[in-house]
User: What shape does this take?
Amino acid sequence: MSDKILLAHGSGGQLSHELVEHLFLKYFDNPILAQLDDAATVHVSRFTFHVPGSFNGTSNLKLAFTTDSYVVSPIFFPGGDIGKLAVCGTINDLAMRGATPLYLSAGFILEEGLPLADLERVVASMAATAQTVGVQIVTGDTKVVDRGKADRLFINTAGIGVVPVGVEVGGDQARPGDVVILSGAVGDHGMTIMSQREGLRFDAPLVSDCAPLNGLVAAMLEIAPQAIHCLRDPTRGGLATALNEVAGKSGVGIEIEEHAVPVRDAVRAACELLGLDPLYVANEGKLVAFLAPEVADGVLDAMRAHEYGREAAIIGRVTEEHAGRVVLRTALGARRILDMLVGEQLPRIC
Amino acid sequence: MKYIDEFRDPHLARKLLANIRACSTQPVRFMEFCGGHTHAIFRHGLRQMLPPTVELRSGPGCPVCVTANADLDRAIALARLPDVILVTFGDMLKVPGSRGSLQAAKAEGADVRIVYSTLDALQIARDNPERAVIFLGVGFETTAPTVAASILQAEAEGLNNFYVLSLHKLTPPATRAILDAGEVRLSGIIGPGHVTTVIGSEAWEFLPRDYSVPCAVAGFEPLDILRAVAALMETVEAGRPAVVNAYSRSVRPEGNRAALGIMRRVFGVSEADWRGLGRVPASGLALRPEYARFDAALAFPVDPGPTREHKGCRCGDVLRGTVEPPDCPLFRSVCTPAHPIGPCMVSAEGACAAWYRYGGADV
Assistant: This one.
């Protein structure tokens, strides 16, 4: 292993996982962190409250708690900006545990010389996004570093949400027989950022899919609160990496039909040009769900009725065979491994 | 998507496969020269769809993979020089040299930048007039003309901080070297589609003439490759080896004269050091004397230190087609894409990476 941090350590792929497992888990080890899910869930019932004048006793609250940092470059892009991304990303991590998001924190690291107007535009975007989602940004922090010591602005957000009673959604909950549903076309965010990047700029009708998914998840859970086993938002590392994480954590095999995965023509074309596979490109407004087959049609209808799930499609199923691996049936009918992302496609995508 | 979907049509693929099956009477082994073909074959699962009588074998057509350690070490040493920006295509970054990689040098402070086009390298040179910008020229006849064009452009603009380390290689001499060595019996060659777009299908006429080996030049979509395999089957079964252009929407017999002209104007043919093949005469491209001032090897003499080969790594054998990646003791156990020992596990065109990423035919 390299004795220096490489950009690939931040890719969300193989090296990111090794860093988490070999370093962070080694020192921070506890059963909650070891879930290694999009958000941690903590049972508040473990604690006894003594609130003077209100109630004494045990609560049954299950909280979801998560944090994420945002370093995307450029900070404004078609379909969003670093502020919208910082709210949506953390909301989505909470939603992927089935939680209703409640409160966010926002920490800013600003580079000396950043135009105030840019900061205001970002903050206004965060506020507008939080408002549509129905969450409040209730605490925050600001630091400024010398010019050149950070690139314009970085944001950290943390979020808290409540998991409804009976909902058990986690990366280790997928089971053989489950149907795999994808909420829409993949690769939009990653290819949009790539098309905007200095030295790579190309003209394409690309728009980031950056969106808050809590409403979509709520609509899905309303149909089948107990039959949705696992939810993931395939961000860095793309759909392929998210599927591999679930296969590994749940100890199951996954089979995906290549032709069933929706990809926009503009994304396919840009990927063909750059030699990328859209299955590995980042998304910021998509989710992949693993659920019991008997509820699949109902959930699919509910998703398609929601603005962020109109193109939802069944893309595969969970198997007992080849546990821990994802197999892709190609359009020609052959079968091959769909592996986790290795290396770095493009740094600072989110 | 137009120009893609029609070349991935499952019905046409089944028809071609039926044709291949119907005319196959004897076991054959075809080498796909190009690593782009290897990855397309694996990505679309073509190996398992062919009848058992048809074996495909990966060849040396991965420019990153065939770059010798000594050349890689030189590039890393150049990147570590003060006031140098080393500009490269992304694939070279992670390839382990004798000691470390460009990626490791970058993490330690070397200014290594990735571009998708040589024009971007020129822009970096314009933007950094006080620093030397060295473009790492790795590639076959497909890449070399674009690098030549960048040198002509630099000359026209009077850019005096732009240099090229030319490690370009030529594909026909490598194919000849493999056939001359005779280590692997081949019934035909799937010719590299993009290279042949530049050099022309006539450049492969020596295969049937001198070696009685047929060659079918192929594009990179599944139907392109199946069509080339079908064409090779026909020539083999008929006992009439020939060059077949199965990629006529891109390849002409004479190639791209403008690209060849610009390449020959800037580069002369030289001996080159290939991983797996060793020193092959007249198989590389060096800057002609009149462009010597752009030659990074001359402008920045460095001592990269002694060359070390990676112990146990069989990339050389994989590149010659004498073994398949799973035959290497390091494959998947020690050598993985996250921690590669040899270049064939790193490159997007490397055979080991294709085997690792997509699995064998036993999925």
Q: What stands out?
A: Chain A has two domains: 7-162, 179-337.
